Structure prediction request, 104 residues.
Amino acid sequence: MLAIILFSSIVYAQPDNAILNWYPSSYIHRFVNSCFDSLEVNQVPSVCRGMVLYASCCACVLDKLRHSLTWEEIEKTGFSEEMQSIIEATLPFCVSQELIRIKQ
Prediction:
């Protein structure tokens, strides 16, 4: 049983084995809600239509941000060009991951 748990964590780990930076839960909640609202209003991307899928796409983008920016950097700069670039670059990846998950 232990081998299965260890194997599972290896399979689902981030490719770079990086640890996600800590963000306060209130920020995570606001980010996902804002992202969700934005996707819903713009109806982009079409694969993420629907409550659960929107939230999944937004959570995926947030995870990518947490790999790239520390909470201290976000507090210092707020919503920066770097943050926008990360969001724009990772949203298509997150959509493709949702497509794969849906097809399984």
Observations:
- Helices lie at 2-11, 25-42, 51-68, 71-77, 81-103.
